[in-house]
Design a protein that fits this description.
three-stranded antiparallel β-sheet; 30% helix; DUF1876 domain-containing protein; Rv2632c-like
């Protein structure tokens, strides 16, 4: 099956009081996902807005990527194609059981 899709990603950056915030929105035509990222300018550093923009944007895109991967993982599980569930071999808390 051949097909072509176009998904659109919008990125909005705002800066206020030394903090840059980014919001990345993915629109697939049927679903919309949003990722967020921030960057803070250290008062001792030079204030270079482009660096804050890049950091906040990359963090928002990374967050968006993780959200998209979690959606795909859930959909794979729903059709029985997800990775096998790992069995926990150690306790969640406390000391591990000693072998007999």
């Amino acid at each position: 099956m051949d097909r072509t899709l176009e998904w659109k990603v919008g990125l909005v950056l705002t800066e206020e009081s030394g903090t840059t915030r980014a919001r990345a929105v993915l629109d697939t035509g049927t679903t919309e996902l949003t990722g967020h990222g921030t960057a803070h300018c250290n008062p001792q550093d030079l204030d270079i807005p482009e660096i804050g923009d890049e950091l906040a944007a990359s963090r928002a895109l990374r967050d968006l990527s993780g959200r998209l991967m979690r959606v795909a993982d859930r959909e794979l599980e729903a059709v029985g194609a997800g990775p096998p569930k790992r069995q926990r071999t150690t306790p969640v808390f406390g000391w591990p059981a000693e072998p007999c």
